[in-house]
Amino acid sequence: MPPMREHIRLYVNAPLCPGEGVVLSREQAHYLRKVMRRSDGDRIGLFNGRDGEWRAIIQTQGKQDCTATPHELIQPQTATPDLWLICALIKRTRLEIVAEKAAELGVREIHPVLTEYTNAPPMKVERLCAITIEAAEQCGLVSVPKLLAPEKLQTILDGWPAERRILFCDESGAGKAAIIALQSAARERAPWAVLTGPEGGFSPAERARLLSMPQTLAVSLGPRILRADTAAISALALWQSVCGDWDTGPVALADQPV
Ligand code: SAH
To answer: Which of 46, 65, 79, 256 has the fewest Cβ atoms surrounding its Cβ within 10 A?
Structure first.
């Protein structure tokens, strides 16, 4: 038996409507034509984070270009739970892992922040975006987290929305075990953010400020100090399992509370 052909899914920005061809980027066209050896009439999946996933037929144009025309909706658009990841900038490869895993686990927004003890090289926004898109393409997702430009932790806390809770991953160990703390907080059905620090941890002033905010839930991720990337991924998994959609499945966009 010949090997099964891989189902290719591509993320695009354009609206997806049946019969309306979408011009793919040069990189996507190259990938389809030269790497995956696809040609006219072959089918791929297209999604844009708004219109669900569509089966689309590709048509090559000239030597390099390619369009894909949606003809059948194969996955309705669903909403990612209202969770942000606020993570201190860390070393590039580790931040890339965090962005990839955050996309897989399901967060709406990723806010990289600079904290007092942050000691990391500048972030490569485009590369991180490409990583989150690739994760969504690979994992059958219909949404990609929004990636924001880095800002100071102080600034983001200054304008913090009153209703959004903060799952503060506090390496001091003073907080309750995350799963227990989340189980009592889950009933509120609030929007949330998971907050993790840099390799050097949070400064005493940052910690004091966070603990003074009514939105903060300080938690421990166990008796061992985790590296920042492990902490972010673990906290997201815990949040998703207790407050997210692991038991209910994804929520169709139309059924979301306004
Ligand atoms: N170097 C610091 C630890 C920083 S770990 C120290 O030795 O104390 C990086 C970040 O991961 C922390 O700021 C925290 O947000 C998170 N983290 C790591 N281990 C944790 C734990 N056991 N509980 C809660 N958060 C933790």
So the answer is: 256
